[in-house]
């Protein structure tokens, strides 16, 4: 594309070279040469890639236009205002009975549960359908998976089998790629190799199609191409209003609309996220060496990007679309503030850094897809229910780890607990907000993970060495490896446990005590004090789950129904909040 474009302009000849008002005549006609914006390398690459239709869920869009929209959203989040914008009031409470209202005969359908958002909502919907509930899904787009694969371990997928969402042979049908071993490495400090961690590439297209067929076979109903216009919560029902002035009736509405759910925005009052994981990457063809994966890898120290700093990390996996196809992600953790890097700025650096990281030339690669996303996290997570008959699920609930991007792994881990709890709540009609909040309880292992995100975020004025983050991570991973699989493997799958964490911290202080002052400078004393509270609660929950649970559990069936329901949720909170649901 030319930098200058000649246009006739009112008989005055101007040539824009540096100064847009310089003039020059060409024959008898006069022209104004107006400067035209030069397309970035990211724009040129993305516009040269064939893009299919967008689908719902994170990572479901690949076009340059969608990138610019997301960057604009990200810029709004990074504004100096504490509240990004006044949220739309999506949920309203109506202090009347629905059956006595003038809308009682206008509902298009009546269900036990309505799930808003189908990309990940299809899993909880199918689990509840398998228990005999009448369930419907409302999805803004066509309900199908994205092209880009999800990386997960077989152990996590078996959770879907246990709750009746999949058959075991479905895992093989949905698996596009398998790879081992898996590397963790930090800027030439040494590599740590593990087996069977995030070593499956699952095709979301195939997986969601399999689950969708099972959901329909169980009697589930899907409303595709329907947007949520509002939710009215009556004393005896919840009414979902669609954009086409249609309404659906249910006893419970599950919000599975992801990180940017309008219901979540209303509950959080438009509050700015506490942290963000920015992710860019590609799926490309042309990698000769393509048999193993990187779970986390850092090839450099902190880098300057735009007006801020960033510590880049990498993930890389073979893709299932061909033997030479490989997915590489570059991600970083930042606080949303003015001057934070945009996704397009990260992609501009990605084109330079990825070939060096993978030992290839960009000219030798065929870019199949460009991938990008922003993943907000809040310290006040999981999100308790703010309304009767409305429950957040998946990314909308904030149940995912603050150091992960994408909530599929946490979804599989919690699906059994949540489906059983929801089913029990439906049977007992325990659908008030204080009862539903027990399904998304405080979990100290999740809150303790905040320290890790802070430690992995580059700061402007901390006076720590440029390689501090890599040094800290390598020290921790090396100590976990020395302590063995019971310590390393849960951590790599975003499960924090009191015993393994205590052992790791103790070994770090013994083997590399000189790193401690830099930790205080990097994360700050207030953050460390706050983390200490959650660390102590992690130990307390471990004690309760190990010693109090066996004492309490035998008496549950002797208690009144509602008391039993609440105690079961407390026992689950102890177990999952301590990470003791994870078994090797």
What would your notes on this structure say?
This protein has 584 residues and is an alpha/beta fold. The protein has three domains: 42-77 and 272-377, no CATH class; 91-175 and 199-271 and 383-430, FAD/NAD(P)-binding domain (3-Layer(bba) Sandwich); 442-583, no CATH class. Helices cover 36% and strands 22% of the residues. Strands 4, 5, 6, 12, 13, 14, 15 and 23 form an eight-stranded mixed β-sheet that branches. Strands 10-9-17-20-21-16-22 form a seven-stranded mixed β-sheet, sandwiched between helices. Strand 18 (303-305) and strand 19 form a beta hairpin. Helix 3 packs across helix 9. The longest helix has 28 residues, at 525-552. The chain starts with a strand and ends in a 7-residue tail after the last helix. Residues 1-33 have low confidence and may be disordered.
Concise structural overview:
This protein is α/β, with parallel strands linked by helices.
Helix- and strand-based class?
Answer: alpha/beta
* Sheet with the most strands, sense and barrel status: 8 strands, mixed
Number of domain units: 3
CATH class of the largest domain: Alpha Beta
| CATH fold naming of the largest domain | FAD/NAD(P)-binding domain
**What general outline do the C-alpha atoms trace?**
globular
Assess the beta-strand content as a share of residues.
15-25%
Cα gyration radius (Å): 26 Å
Low-confidence stretches: 1-33
User: What is the CATH H-level superfamily of the largest domain?
Assistant: FAD/NAD(P)-binding domain
- The CATH architecture category of the largest domain equals 3-Layer(bba) Sandwich
């Amino acid at each position: 594309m030319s930098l200058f474009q000649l246009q006739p302009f009112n008989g005055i000849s101007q040539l824009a070279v540096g100064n847009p008002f310089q003039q020059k005549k060409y024959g008898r006609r006069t022209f104004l040469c107006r400067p035209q914006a030069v397309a970035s390398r990211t724009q040129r690459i993305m516009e040269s890639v064939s893009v299919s239709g967008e689908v719902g869920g994170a990572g479901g869009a690949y076009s340059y236009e969608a990138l610019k929209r997301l960057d604009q959203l990200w810029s709004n989040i990074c504004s100096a205002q504490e509240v990004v914008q006044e949220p739309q009031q999506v949920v309203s409470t109506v202090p009347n009975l629905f059956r006595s209202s003038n809308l009682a005969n206008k509902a298009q359908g009546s269900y036990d549960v309505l799930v808003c958002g189908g990309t990940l909502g299809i899993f909880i919907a199918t689990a509840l359908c398998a228990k005999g509930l009448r369930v419907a899904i409302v999805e803004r787009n066509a309900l199908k998976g994205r092209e880009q694969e999800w990386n997960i371990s077989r152990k996590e997928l078996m959770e879907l089998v246990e709750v009746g969402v999949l058959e075991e042979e479905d895992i093989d049908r949905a698996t596009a790629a398998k790879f081992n071993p898996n590397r963790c490495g930090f800027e030439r400090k040494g590599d740590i190799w593990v087996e069977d961690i995030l070593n499956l590439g699952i095709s979301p297209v195939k997986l969601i199609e399999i689950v969708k067929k099972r959901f329909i076979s169980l009697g589930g109903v899907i409303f595709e191409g329907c947007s949520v216009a509002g939710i009215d919560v009556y004393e005896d029902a919840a009414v979902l209003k669609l954009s086409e002035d249609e309404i659906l009736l249910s006893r419970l509405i599950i919000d599975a609309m992801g990180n940017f759910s309008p219901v979540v925005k209303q509950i959080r009052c438009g509050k700015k996220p506490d942290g963000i994981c920015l992710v860019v990457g590609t799926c490309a063809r042309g990698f000769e060496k393509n048999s193993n994966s990187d779970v986390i890898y850092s090839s450099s120290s902190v880098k300057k990007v735009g007006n801020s700093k960033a510590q880049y990390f990498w993930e890389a996996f073979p893709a299932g679309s061909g033997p030479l196809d490989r997915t590489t992600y570059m991600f970083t953790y930042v606080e949303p503030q003015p001057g934070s890097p945009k996704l397009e700025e990260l992609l501009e650096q990605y084109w330079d850094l990825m070939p060096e990281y993978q030992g290839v030339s960009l000219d030798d690669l065929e870019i199949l897809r460009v991938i990008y996303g922003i993943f907000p996290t809040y310290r006040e997570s999981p999100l308790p229910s703010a309304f009767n008959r409305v429950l957040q699920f998946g990314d909308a609930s904030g149940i995912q780890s603050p150091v992960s991007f994408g909530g599929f792994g946490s979804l599989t881990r919690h699906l059994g607990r949540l489906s059983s709890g929801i089913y029990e709540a439906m049977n007992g009609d325990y659908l008030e907000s204080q009862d539903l909040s027990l399904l998304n309880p405080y979990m100290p292992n999740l809150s303790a993970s905040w320290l890790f995100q802070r430690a992995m975020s580059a700061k402007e004025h901390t006076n720590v060495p440029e390689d501090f983050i890599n040094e800290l991570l390598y020290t921790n991973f090396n100590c976990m490896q020395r302590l063995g699989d019971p310590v390393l493997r849960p951590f790599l799958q975003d499960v924090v446990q009191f015993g393994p964490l205590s052992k790791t911290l103790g070994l770090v202080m013994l083997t590399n005590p000189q790193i401690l002052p830099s930790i205080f400078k990097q994360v700050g004393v207030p953050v460390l004090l706050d983390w200490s509270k959650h660390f102590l609660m992690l130990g307390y929950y471990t004690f309760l789950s190990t010693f109090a649970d066996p004492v309490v559990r035998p008496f549950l069936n002797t208690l009144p129904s509602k008391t039993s329901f609440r105690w079961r949720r407390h026992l689950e909170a102890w177990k999952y909040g301590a990470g003791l649901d994870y078994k090797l």
